[in-house]
Amino acid sequence: MKFLFNLNEIGPNFLKLRPPARAVVLAIRYLEINDIELKLCRTYMGENQEPEFVKKNPQKTVPFLDDNGFYLSESRAILYYLAKARAPESTLLGRFPKKSALIHQRLDYELGTIGPIAAQIFRSVFQGKTTIVDPELRDKLYGALNLVDDFLTKTAYIADNFVSIADFSYLANISTFVHCGAPIQTKFPNIWTWYQRCKSLAGYEENEEGARSIGNMFKGKLTEPFDN
């Protein structure tokens, strides 16, 4: 089994792992999957455009999983596959239909609401279009996170009182917001409590390293704090 992740297109010194790849690495560590090769795909050098890669993955995206000829892209699909293949009886996917549905609802919310807003914020700064966090986008992000904070008034983890694949995906993103200077601790106390609870997860520090790298680069490009 091979798991391919990437460096950001800006260059090799930018960061090791972007959030989608870090989410999958968190699952790999949690599931204690040792028979997997973590392989770098250098998108900034066009390795994802090479014919052999495109044949396996026409999307040309990373992260990307190759499990002995079974090819899978999209981080959330990879999370589901790894959990189903390696721990089908665990709580990672929810043991009952309603719990499973909540996990997927949380993932869909992150993908469709939080992700696009965050992408706009980061893209505009890293591409040099602005040196501040756009106030309108920041308010939209805070609005989206308010709902997550509300989720966590009812459960210890993102979808229930147990760790699920949703926690891996959210942790990769929330940790990035924290290290980029978003006031998670003061504005979203339930998210912050959950974030502290996640310290017990295998791979937490590894994820923090990647998030910290992004945060340092991001803050270095700003002329005002995230929450100015």
Question: Which topology of the largest domain does CATH recognise?
Answer: Glutathione S-transferase Yfyf (Class Pi), Chain A, domain 2
Widest sheet: strand ordering: 2-1-3-4
Largest sheet: 4 strands, mixed
Tally of individual domains: 2
Mean model confidence by pLDDT: 90
**What is the succession of H and E elements?**
EHEHEEHHHHHHH
Tally of helical segments: 9
Strand content: 5-15%
Radius of gyration over all CA atoms, rounded:
17 Å
Terminal Cα separation, in Å? 45 Å
CATH class of the largest domain: Mainly Alpha
Do you know the CATH architecture of the largest domain? Answer: Up-down Bundle
| Overall outline | globular
Helix content: 40-55%
How many strand elements?
4
Q: Report the uncertain regions.
A: 6-15
| Helix/strand class | alpha+beta
InterPro entries: Glutathione-S-Trfase_C-like, Glutathione-S-Trfase_C_sf, Glutathione_S-Trfase, Glutathione_S-Trfase_N, Thioredoxin-like_sf
Protein name: glutathione transferase
GO molecular function, one term: glutathione transferase activity
Family: Belongs to the GST superfamily. Theta family.
Describe the structure using short key phrases.
single chain; 228 residues; Glutathione S-transferase Yfyf (Class Pi), Chain A, domain 2; 2 domains; 4-stranded mixed sheet; 9 helices; 4 strands; 54% helix
Give a concise summary.
This is glutathione transferase. It catalyses: RX + glutathione = an S-substituted glutathione + a halide anion + H(+). With 228 residues, the chain is α+β, with helices and mostly antiparallel strands.
Write the topology of this structure.
Layout: E1 2-6, H1 19-30, E2 37-41, H2 51-56, E3 64-67, E4 70-73, H3 75-86, H4 97-126, H5 135-151, H6 165-179, H7 184-187, H8 189-197, H9 204-221
Parallel strand pairs: 1-2
Antiparallel strand pairs: 1-3, 3-4
Helix pairs in contact: 1-3, 1-6, 1-9, 3-6, 4-5, 4-6, 6-9
